[in-house]
Amino acid sequence: MSGGAAGRIAALNGELTLSFLTRIAARYHLGIRDVLAAITDVGGLQNLTGMLYPDSEIHLNAQARDRVAALCHVPQHVLEQALPAWTREEPCGKYGMGPVGRLMRGEEVVAAWGPACPACTTARTGREVPARRYLAPEQRVCARHRYWLLYLPHTGGLTVPLGPCPEVIEAQRQHARLLHRSPIGAQTFEVARAVTNSWLEQPWPRQEHTWPARLDATRPDGADPGWWKVAARDLITYPETVALARLLASRPLQQRAVAESGGHLPYRLGELPALLTEVAHELQRSWLVHRLAAVTHGPLFTWAHSCVITRADPTPAAQQKLWKVHSSHRPRPLSDLLPPPESRTDSGQQEPRPVKRLRGHSLQAERAFQRSLAHARAYHQQFGHLAVPKEDSFGNYQLGTWLSNLRTRHTRVPAHQAAALNALYPWWNAPWSTLWQRTWHQAHDHLEAHGPLKPASGFPTTGYSLGEWLYLQCTRYPTLHPEQQRLLTHIGIDAPAAAAARPRRRSSAERFQVGLAHARAYADVHGNLAVVAHAAMHDSYPLGQWLGNQRRGRRSDRRPLPADRAQALADIDPWWNPPWGLSWQRHYYRARDAAVGSLLQAESGFSDLDDSGAADWLWRQSATYDELSEEQQQLLTDIGITTEVARTAVKPARTAPKAPAVTTDPEMKDKTSHARGATDPAAPTGPRRARHAAEPKRPREPGSRLGHRPDLKAGFETAMTHARAWHAEHGHLAAPRDTRHDDYPLGMWLLSQRNRAKQRARDGLPPSPHLTELAAIDSWWNPPWDLHWQRNYYRARDHVEAGRPFDPARLVPSPGTVMGSWIGRACLQYDQFHPGQQQLLTLIGITPEVARARTRRAQPWRTAVEHAKAFAETHGHLAVPHDTLHEGFALGRWLNKQRYRIRQKGTTPAAHALTAIDPWWNPPWGITWQRAYHHARTQPHTPTTRRWIHKQRRLWALLHPDQQYLLTTTGLIVS
């Protein structure tokens, strides 16, 4: 057959290789199977894999390509220029060496194709033989012969006459002009195609007349309208898709959308009325404005959302995000939507069609969503909303985490899942915080229970915190999200009401009760209220200032303290507001405490007291006993200082001044006084100053070693007592924020101490001295890493100290347990940890060697990833041939296996690691192209590279958008 009389058979530009072989078979009057058997024959065996279908494509190795070139009498380089898939892959055969062919089909592995125009094919080949060509979206129309070249799975395609639809031909001209003028024209067309296809799948409104007319005008005779609506979806929507793509590619439109958003992420498309108006005007459908205003999901909403996020930034990274079409928004492949042709058995009965799983649809993920949705529905029935905090659980289910993950990727949620969540609670993905939404629901419930909120009166019916929140929203009303303003309108706060709002003031009675509670707690510890200094704080409450205000009110006639409040304070401490000075009362309590367990010996100057200051004060009160009020005398009597005892009191010996020489002569006394003043100008004058000067200096008490004010010392010691008790029980201070120890908020206190320590470190200040006491309890009380990691470490440490099985290198505990999973992550990230973390892990037996052993045992692919990383660091990519070895490891074979596994089962952990090393290690095109690209990138001036670049320019329209991006970003081809 190699010397056949068929003569030279030329390939069509962009033709499928299998289509070319079919035309060769027709020229030789053979069947396609005969030609395939001839070009893949190896010792009488057919070295061909895959099944032959009408929509298949074939990849040939070099030896098989040589045989095809001999059959058609066309040189190899000519065929390579005409056939895009000619050298795309080097398949491996099942019979070893020799010519090999591999049949493939499906929209994932075979690029978009369609039938060649019959008239153009006849004019090119001189024969009426059907052919198939790779077609870009703008090549679907043959403007000369007015055909739409329609791809149909399971067939060789269909040519649709476009005589009744001249707008389709005009749209093709506009499409080509868009691609010529805009470097992102292909990407904008894909976004517009996703938008128009999503509209096509929805029920058409009665105002829509163009699409039904186009559907009827192009439908073949006898074809089912429903089937044709799916098969010809790109044809029906093509003019509108091109018009929308031209509009979305407009930079002024993007900038207007960003300006119209006001800096807020859109919640629904109705917040961008100018965008909707321009879309409706461009598509000549005025009813689209009302229809799209309520849309909160879908490809057009995702584009607008990304446009606002990127601020229409022209950088490549921002543009890549703006024009990305998520898998949930892409049109589903026709092979999933259109059933295969019916097949019948030998008896003529129709064979049942197998149930095929839709690509991109995971039954397990769908079931998990339904289970989670059931929990969300139960939560909504109980609380009326889905504003769940991220850390909250509901019925032992992490509902908050699930909803938080959905909010993070809400633009990528499938349409049916988004519709189910919107039907349950429309604000599940609000572009503001869940805390705001929960507080709004509190205000809404308060409105229904207690009536209008009355902003102009300061929200008098609300609690203090809710009233303050409402007033804060009123002050921020102009800057709030439009949807937040609409929600506030539902509870009676519109723009005029917000402007007239007054702040919520806590009632006097409420403020008094708060202060009274702190006063009672303070008195329970210290026994009285007189020792409270004016600047004293109690649990961050200004107790000293509050008590000072109560005392002034008690003594004032302008705003006197009510009797019931005064009595409440008197019940705590009868002498909270004595008629004499607070200094006297504080000294009295000091002397009373010093006198406990001692006999007051007034005749010896109260020498039995250990407190010299209290002894000195008692002597002074005894000396002026008659000048004291009856209440003061009674208080002194309560500690044993009666009138008789006061009469016998003498000055303490240690405080008595030296007796000066007695001078009876007044003149001599004056001279002595003047002489003393002359010799010692600083000598005090007056009897009181002389007495104080003669008294020995009392030793000064050392300053507080805690490093802060003395009035905070008591609270700090209380907190330290709880911290020591917690550490004695748990062995650490990594307490969660909501931890309470004996009803003391220890977790919040520790959090505040950590924040203060970190703030001082940021300000370049030395650590507070009092924090050394916390470090003495637990040296890692404030680690430089996440406290959640620290708590997990202590759980592992307790596990080891309890003698339970622990062998990380042998996967004990199991990676399926919570602790085993944490140990696995710790081993995996060991090299990135802080030295302190590595030191702690070493204490429980996790050394670098153990970490590597566990990682390789739990994830054997890690060794292969290390080889891949080392290879990529040297060569810059992972597009390696099949027989590549790296330090004895079969890296090329392993990478091919990973690519095959991804096609069969989806992404894997190894795939994630490889993507981090080389994003294009598994491209959606042939790996041969990727290797050629890297060769051209590293050696751009060789003849082979120049020929390859010339071929890419010629086949530019057939390349993947990412292939075009790689070629343009590296400068191999200037766009």
Describe the structure in your own words.
By secondary structure, this protein is mainly α. The strands form four sheets. A three-stranded mixed beta sheet has the order 3-5-4. Strands 8-9-10 form a three-stranded antiparallel beta sheet. It is elongated. It starts with 16 loop residues before the first helix and ends in a 6-residue tail after the last helix. The model is unreliable at 1-5, 655-685 and 697-707 (pLDDT under 50).
Q: Please report the distance between the alpha carbons of the first and last residues.
A: 45 Å
The percent range for helix content is: 40-55%
Strand order of the largest sheet: 3-5-4
By secondary-structure content and strand pairing, the structural class works out as mainly alpha
Biggest pleated sheet:
3 strands, mixed
Average residue pLDDT: 83
Quaternary state of the chains: single chain
Number of helices: 45
What is the beta-strand fraction?
A: under 5%
Describe the global form.
elongated
| Sequence stretches where pLDDT stays below 50 over 5 or more residues | 1-5, 655-685, 697-707
Number of strands: 10
**Rg over alpha carbons:** 44 Å
Any key phrases for this structure?
975 residues; mainly alpha; three-stranded mixed beta sheet; three-stranded antiparallel beta sheet; 45 helices; 10 strands; disordered N terminus
